[in-house]
Amino acid sequence: MAAAALFSPRPLAGQRVVTSAGWQEATVGSELERYLRILQLAGKSPVYPWSVRGFSPREIDGLAPRDSLHPWAARLGGGAPDSTQGLRVAILRPEVHLTFNSAFPWAENDGVVWAGRGLTSAIQAGVQARYGPLTLTLRPIAFRAENDAFPLMPNGLTGDRRFANGVAPGKIDLPQRFGSGPYERIDFGQSSLALDLYGVALGVSTGSEIWGPAFDQSLVLGAGAPGFTHAFIGTVAPVNVGVGHLHGRLIVGRLEQSAYSPAPSGLGSRLAAGLVATFSPRWTPGLELGLTRFFHQRWPTGGLLLSDFLIPLRGFFLKNSAQKYNPSDPNYTPQNQIASVFSRWAFPSSGLEIYGEYARDDRNANTRDLLSEPDHISAYTIGLVKLLRRSARSYSVVRAELANGRVTDLARLRPESGFYVHAPIDQGHTNRGQLLGSPAVALGGDGATIGLDVYQTDGRWTLEGTRMARPLDIYAEGAASGRGWDVSYALKAERLLFLQGWEITAAVTGVFDLNRNFSHDAFDLRLDVGSRFGF
Fold first, then answer.
1. Where are the domains of the chain?
2. What 3-state DSSP class applies to 265?
3. What CATH code would you report for 17-532?
4. 112, 151, 182, 413: which sits with the fewest CB atoms below 10 Å from its CB?
């Protein structure tokens, strides 16, 4: 007994070890992060900018509700955040998820995981340690997709390149299928090392970022692709500047391509540099206005420099086109910019929020270019969320979102491609073969989602309908081919159940694809089962 007591682990003075992270599991794009957004509309969470995600642990501390008058209070607890000043360690509970697609791949902002035809299995777990202003989060994920065969859209290529994108195989790294056998990967996932000190947040991360106010169709950075290794610096929380509050983040990192990319392997890595900033006016509570800039650039031969953080702060206009289009120019820098402006207005007293984002792909040459053709290679997202019923035991929420990236009428007079495609960055707006932004607007497409979420003390019910369409010709919306559009309709029913210390998720999605691959109709049944383990 004495020996057992001697060698058993004991907390140090000022240390707290917990078995469940609770609100700290509100990672970017997670279930809890979305629930925090609903709590804001219910008046239970402070009004706070929602367009710079993921949130830091300190931000989560401030957003967590202080009372128990909300449906998931018994599950998550309430009251003030942990005030322990020493080491705090929280276990991010293990999670297993299985996805089955009966006929073809169908994705739902799955992040690192690519769910092909057949069974896809994923597992993740982690731990978070906080000591004063320093936070270390380790949350790796591993997945394996059976990746069974299905009819591909012919793209005119042979060998492994036949798996490349069917519409634009030479212009974007967005494969139809990741090879002829199982596809698997181990990834660091939402892992990071961050320091929050004197109002400044800085660190390194391998996790995803979501920029802008959209629920599902973020135009610049969303939850549909693996995160990429990046360094960041920004504000810990919105900074009071008298007339309002400013909040923002700068990042610089490295993007990679898949094995089916149109770019040669020697040009496979890209430098990514981006900026997101929001302004909340003092006199209009709940309103946030913002902008983003995100640059793709070929990876520098000398590696990253501190000055690369400043790329998104440079001039908005491309005054010297030779640097972009003339390889013989000594200043030639293959590069592309995606930029957006957005707004979100939340009205907790009415349980309502409305939002919108407008994005451009390709840097403007000058002011005249911007003013005369502001819709050149553009896309937009608009949406609303309405809390229909709120009580201590139940919330009912309806949400609707529309995204449109169709090629505009400018294509009749000026060359214009579908969104996320731009030479000479042949990989497009992707990382490891998956879209960094909205799947709806990619390659000139559009989409819409309407959903009903019912949050209760024992979990959540969801019924959701989605429509997505893509053209065959990314320059003229398929008109030249006469084969029109590939249009899919998806209907999903989902249940999240709290069962003692466990969380069980089950979903059924029927996908009706009309004119799939511009040749035939098809139906896919997607089944999801997941479990987050209790202790």
1. 17-532
2. helix
3. 2.40.160.130
4. 413
**Residue 344 one-letter amino acid:** R
Q: What is the 3 state secondary structure string of 7-67?
A: HCCCCCCCCEEECCCHHHHCCCCCHHHHHHHHHHHCCCCCCCCCCEECCCHHHHHHHCCCC
CA proximity to 465, closest of 412, 390, 395, 402: 402
pLDDT tens-place string over residues 169-191:
999 999 999 999 999 999 999 99
Distances, alpha carbon 533 to alpha carbons 8, 95, 99, 319, 498, in Å: 25, 6, 18, 56, 11
Q: What is the pLDDT of residues 323-365, one digit of tens each?
A: 555 666 656 677 889 999 999 999 999 999 999 999 999 877 7
The structure tokens listed for 44 are 């239970």
DSSP line for 296-336: EEEPPTT---GGGGGGGGS-SS---THHHH-TTSTT---EE
Question: b/e for 448-475, b at 16 or more Cβ within 10 A?
Answer: bbebebbbbebbbbbebebbbbbbbbbb
Q: Are 272 and 250 in contact (CB under 8 A)?
A: no
Tokens of residue 414, six digits? 């000026």
Rounded CA-CA distance 64/154 in Å is 50
DSSP-assigned beta bridge partners for residue 529:
98, 506
> Do 508 and 493 contact (CB within 8 A), yes or no?
yes
Whether omega for the bond prior to residue 54 falls within 30 degrees of 0, making it cis, is: yes
The single-letter code of the amino acid at 157 is L
CA distance 77 to 64: 9
Identify each DSSP E strand in 299-429 by its residue range.
335-347, 352-361, 378-390, 394-404
**pTM for the complete prediction?**
0.91
Which whole-number Å values give the CA distances from 502 to 382, 496, 528, 535, in the listed order? 36, 10, 17, 8
Compute the distance between CA of residue 120 and CA of residue 133 in angstroms, rounded to an integer. Answer: 38
Q: 531, 526, 532, 481: which is closest to 167 by C-alpha?
A: 481
Please say whether the beta carbons of 348 and 41 come within 8 A. Answer: yes
